[in-house]
Amino acid sequence: MKTKAGLMTVAMLAACTGTAAIAQSSGADIYKAKCQSCHGAEGTPNPGIAKMMGVKPVSDPSVKSLSEGQMITDTTNGKGKMPAFKGKLTDAQIKDSVMYFRSLAR
């Protein structure tokens, strides 16, 4: 009996780990396709884009202080010169891309 329980635990952990990796990969792919041109590959926009579009790096205190929920709202509805992604990306894709962007600050 202990062997079955151990195998089930390992299987559950593997399934959860795989799901997290897929979500992270999905967020990275979406970010690269839709966000990177303005926000930069590592969350730091090039100086020209930053000045022209008012984009701040992910490490900026004003960006770091935004909650995940606020970033999702801003990405969904647009903010400043950033277009709205509502109807262009699913809610899950928006959340995944925001989570990936936030991970660049670490």
Spatial extent as radius of gyration? 17 Å
Number of helices: 6
Order of helices and strands: HHHHHH
Q: In CATH, what is the class?
A: Mainly Alpha
Secondary structure: helix percent: 55-70%
Name the beta content range: under 5%
The CATH superfamily appears as: Cytochrome c-like domain
Spatial shape: globular
Any low-confidence stretches, pLDDT <50, length ≥5?
Answer: 5-24
Task: Explain what you see.
The chain is mainly α and 106 residues long. The chain has one domain: Cytochrome c-like domain (Cytochrome Bc1 Complex, Chain D, domain 2, Orthogonal Bundle). It has helices at residues 2-34, 36-39, 47-53, 61-64, 68-77, 91-103. The protein is globular. 16% of the residues are buried. Mean pLDDT is 84; it is low at 5-24.
Brief account:
The protein is an all-alpha fold. It contains 6 helices and no strands.
Task: Give the arrangement of secondary structure elements.
Blueprint: H1 2-34, H2 36-39, H3 47-53, H4 61-64, H5 68-77, H6 91-103
Helix pairs in contact: 1-6, 5-6
Give short descriptive properties of this protein.
single chain, 106 residues, mainly alpha, Cytochrome Bc1 Complex, Chain D, domain 2, 0% strand
